[in-house]
Amino acid sequence: QSKKAGGNRYTFFTGKMQDEFLYSVRLENGLRQAVKDGGKEFILYYQPVIDADGEKITGCEALIRWNHPEIGLVPPNDFIKIAEESGLIIPIGEWVIRQVCVQIKEWDAAGLDPVTVSINISSEQFQDASFVGDFISILREEDVPFNRIQLEMTENGLMEDTKETLQTLAELKRNGIAIAIDDFGTGYSSLSYLKQFEVQTLKIDQSFTKELTDNQGDKAIVTATIQLAKSLGLNVVAEGVETKEVSLYLKNLGCPHLQGFYYSKPLTPVLFEKFITRPAAQ
Ligand code: C2E
Ligand code: MG
Ligand code: MG
Ligand code: MG
Predict the structure, then answer these.
(1) For the chain, how many helices (H) and strands (E)?
(2) Residue 235, Cβ neighbours under 10 Å: how many?
(3) Which residue's CA is the nearest one to ligand 1's atom 25?
(4) Whether 254 contacts 230, CB under 8 Å
(5) In angstroms, rounded to a whole number, what is the distance separating the alpha carbons of residues 164 and 158?
(6) Is 281 helix (H, G, I), strand (E, B) or coil?
(7) Ligand 4 centroid – CA 224 distance (Å)
(8) Do the interacting molecules here have an ipTM over 0.95?
(9) Where do the DSSP E strands lie in the chain?
(10) Per the database record, which ranges form the EAL domain (predicted)?
(11) What digits encode the pLDDT tens for the residues 46-61?
């Protein structure tokens, strides 16, 4: 296809680029429709976060999927960027917050031990002037205490507009809403923001933990990050724990929380409930 295009001096798009462009237009239109329909095509999966002592589940991370009527299950890496660029992330993000509230109340009603639910927030959402107010309104409407939900932001997202960010973080802190830095160590920010920003948790990116036990560089970075977090009085979660070996290594380093496929993939609400109530989880 691109060979044919190459024969024409006036063709700028290769076939592949054109396919990608058409696919993203299709997704954007589909997302707009999905938002109009009230979010029925979206689903939240929940991935357990494990306490390293005792291996109890102390939290989970809500991860969105989109069940496209024709394409099927679309992963977030395929559509979050499109949602961010089109502004649709604002209503989608509100749907996520509300859905998490509904889920928390369902689990409470079913008598599950309460876990903190983490929600991913894009910088486009965080920078929206009404973000904190809208977040608080939804939790009040749904009658969910603020300390049941934690927000995850990437370093890059937090660095975009430092003055505004500091104000938003202070407003969240005043209301007792906790923040975790997601994908820690992969951004292009300096470490100095850690003493300025009032965050509670660092999530070590999975790129450092995947081959942790075979890679000296990863070992050095992960060891230093856990130390740094401890010295600053922050909580740490290691993401991307895929093997028993890596989980043991992290426990020996004193990493208090672990998340990854070794413990569980992200689960549908029904499977999450089964996972948390299974005999081995007690
Ligand atoms: P993230 O927040 O860093 O989430 C972790 C991703 O790593 C998830 O991918 C999860 O399924 C995957 N993961 C967890 N454990 C392992 C492991 O042991 N090995 C490997 N290889 N992967 C693991 P997922 O669900 O595809 O989400 C991708 C990204 O999409 C998320 O990265 C987050 O940045 C974004 N995202 C997901 N849900 C939302 C949402 O509701 N709102 C926003 N704004 N972004 C979201
Ligand atoms: Mg996350
Ligand atoms: Mg992450
Ligand atoms: Mg990420």
Answers:
(1) 13, 9
(2) 16
(3) 63
(4) yes
(5) 9
(6) helix
(7) 21
(8) yes
(9) 42-51, 57-68, 72-74, 116-120, 149-154, 178-184, 201-204, 235-238, 257-258
(10) 24-280
(11) 999 999 987 899 999 9
The helix/strand/coil state of 244 is helix
* Residues forming beta bridges with residue 62, ordered by sequence position: 46, 119
Ligand nearest to the Cα of 266, by number: 1
Residues in the chain: 282
Report which DSSP code applies to 190. -
Atom of ligand 1 nearest to the CA of 239: 15
> How does pLDDT run across 105-149, given as a tens digit for each residue?
999 999 999 999 999 999 999 999 999 999 999 999 999 999 999
41: left (phi over 0), alpha (psi -120 to 50) or beta: alpha
- To test the pocket of ligand 1, the residue of 63, 73, 81, 202 to mutate (highest count of ligand atoms within 8 Å of its CB) is 63
pLDDT of amino acid 139: 97
Does the pTM of the predicted model rise above 0.90? Answer: yes
Average pLDDT on 184-204 reads 87
Ligand 1-lining residues (CB < 6 angstroms): 47, 63-64, 75-77, 80, 96, 120-122, 152, 182-183, 206, 240-242, 260-261, 266
Give the residue carrying structure tokens 């239109």.
29
CA of 270 from ligand 2 middle (Å) equals 21
Distance CA(180)–CA(203), nearest Å, equals 7
